[in-house]
Design a protein that fits this description.
It is a single chain. This protein is mainly beta. It starts with a strand and ends in a 7-residue tail after the last strand. The strands form four sheets. Strands 3, 4, 5, 6, 7, 8, 9 and 10 form an eight-stranded mixed sheet that branches. The chain has a five-stranded mixed sheet with strand order 1-20-19-16-17, with no helix packed on it. It has helices spanning 75-89, 161-175, 203-213, and strands at residues 2-7, 26-27, 35-38, 50-51, 57-61, 96-98, 107-111, 123-124, 128-136, 141-150, 153-154, 157-158, 221-222, 229-236, 241-253, 259-268, 271-281, 286-295, 302-309, 324-330. Bound molecules: zinc ion (ZN). Zinc ion is lined by residues 123, 125, 170, 174, 180, 189.
């Protein structure tokens, strides 16, 4: 929780009670904070927050490989074996289901004569490529989809069933967020073809994925102190003073999933002065909250303004300690005291 201290110099203590009806919070349009980008080098040891936000992943295996040299229909079973290896090897931490609907596919796997290497932002392994599109939410890189291309031959020699399983294991590893690894490991970028027995996953692969996916997918609502401005104005009327509140801040969702029905509450000296409900804050999204001239009862010489998102803790979040921002507005007469 960050506190913002705003000192307002005035000549009197707090005596007035606002008479007007409280206006609604004005929530302006959501800034488009969600950035989709293709990333190349995912290294969970350096960036531990590259992951999918849901399981199982829908996998579309494109069997239409007409014209692809040395393609065998049995390659599909090899790919399925690789998917099963990742799923069983991680104890269902990651899971897959095949789909025949391209529109709801998370991962697309297809065979090609030549890898499309036109885009520099890729995992390029000679025998296969995994493209990964991620949504960057500042704290997390959420994988939105992956496109895996596999070759069917190496230097003109057809790949074996074990080769295909190895290449698919490797590229699916990238699609799950894994980076290259040295040594005897399926994520080693150099594979020997002409194999009869497929490689096994290492404990390292499995542990990295377990760590990556151990937390359930939750949102994380936050009000950052940076860029937040909270102030009050006092206008002297005949015998009463009128106090109004101005709030200018952003509410972010730094989490892994979208969040719906988000309550926001503004309190002055612990008393609720306004509430609102936001329909949705998408992952990586933010909402600009602007309150101007909202009448507030002024109770004490120092008014404690709190803006709290999810004040009754109805939403389970990754971090529950960044939902509030506080400003102390001091009305004490500094000149005469
Ligand atoms: Zn690779």
């Amino acid at each position: 929780m960050a506190a913002i201290s705003i000192l307002t110099i005035s000549t009197m203590g707090c005596t007035g009670i606002a008479e007007e009806t409280v206006t609604n919070l004005r929530i302006t349009s959501a800034p488009n904070d969600v950035v989709f980008r293709q990333i190349k080098g995912i290294d969970p040891t350096m960036d531990p927050n590259v992951r999918w936000n849901h399981m199982p992943l829908n996998v579309y295996i494109d069997e239409n490989a007409a014209g692809v040299k040395n393609y065998k229909s049995s390659f599909k079973q090899d790919v399925i074996k690789s998917l099963v290896s990742w799923q069983t090897g991680t104890g269902n931490v990651v899971s897959f289901q095949t789909t025949k609907n391209l529109d709801n596919a998370d991962i697309i796997i297809r065979w090609v004569n030549e890898l499309d290497t036109s885009d520099n932002e890729r995992m390029d392994d000679g025998l296969g490529i995994a493209y990964i599109a991620v949504s960057n939410t500042s704290r997390y890189n959420i994988i939105k989809n992956s496109d895996i291309q596999l070759l069917t031959q190496h230097s003109g020699s057809p790949l074996t069933s074990a080769d295909m399983q190895n290449i698919a294991l490797h590229e699916i590893g990238h699609a799950l967020g894994l980076a290259h690894k040295s040594g005897s490991d399926i994520m080693n970028p150099y594979l020997t073809t002409g194999q009869i027995t497929p490689l096994k996953l290492s404990a390292g692969n499995v542990n990295t994925l377990k760590k990556l996916y151990e937390g359930s997918a939750k949102p994380d609502l936050a009000i950052p102190a940076a860029g937040t401005a909270i102030s009050m104005n006092r206008t002297s009327l005949m015998i009463l003073d009128k106090y109004t509140l101005n709030v200018d801040l952003k509410i972010h969702n730094y989490g892994i999933v979208d969040v719906h029905d988000v309550e926001i509450e503004v309190r002055a000296d612990g008393k609720t002065v306004n509430t609102d409900v936001l329909d949705e804050i998408p992952l990586g999204g933010g909402l600009h909250m602007l309150v101007q001239g909202m009448p507030v009862d002024c109770i004490t010489e120092t008014t404690n303004i709190q803006v709290i998102v999810d004040p009754y803790n109805k939403i389970e979040e990754i971090d529950e300690n960044n939902n509030q921002i506080t400003a102390m507005i001091d009305w004490i007469d500094r000149v005469s005291s």
